[in-house]
């Protein structure tokens, strides 16, 4: 385990998470997800974590691996049309990952998700966490609306509230 990375993860827990995502920002993200989901049949989850658990950090775990673990734990895969999307932020590594279930991934591919991640990372680098998160949610919503437009029925299959992983 690299000492610098371990310190970043530890310090992110103490300071960065509360500063970057205070309650008002989490509420704004929840409202943005609800508004987005009214425009398509997809389901969006947003998770933020200060640092990796020590065991994952010690074995050299990555943000992508952790996102995949949370994708399963949060049941993002458990939607009728396989159209769930997880946005995962790992503050300790300054990482943004977007994982899409197979139904949406087959239609969208990797490129658009990478572009959205880069735009979010750029805003976060400026300390604009709420703006970056809301812009990412908006861009994801546009993709989902294009590929999964709303139907006659549009159940809300997953919670809209962002998850702060502890």
What does this structure look like?
The chain is built from 7 helices and 4 strands. It has 166 residues and is an alpha/beta fold. The protein has one domain: Diaminopimelate Epimerase, Chain A, domain 1 (Roll), CATH 3.10.310. A 4-stranded mixed β-sheet has the order 3-2-1-4, with helices on both faces. Helix 2 packs parallel to helix 7 (129-147) and helix 6 packs antiparallel against helix 7. The chain is globular and about 55 Å long.
Radius of gyration: 15 Å
- Which structural class do you get from the secondary structure elements? alpha/beta
- Tell me the distance between the termini: 20 Å
Mean pLDDT: 91
What is the CATH C-level name?
Answer: Alpha Beta
Low-pLDDT regions: none
Whole-number count of domains: 1
Kindly state the number of beta strands.
Answer: 4
The description of the largest β-sheet is: 4 strands, mixed
| Biggest sheet: strand arrangement | 3-2-1-4
Q: So how many helices?
A: 7
Strand content: 5-15%
General shape: globular
Q: From the 3D coordinates, which CATH architecture would you assign? A: Roll
What is this structure's SSE topology?
Elements: H1 3-20, H2 23-37, E1 43-49, H3 54-58, H4 63-73, E2 84-90, E3 95-100, H5 102-108, H6 111-125, H7 129-147, E4 163-165
Parallel strand pairs: 1-2, 1-4
Antiparallel strand pairs: 2-3
Helix pairs in contact: 2-7, 6-7
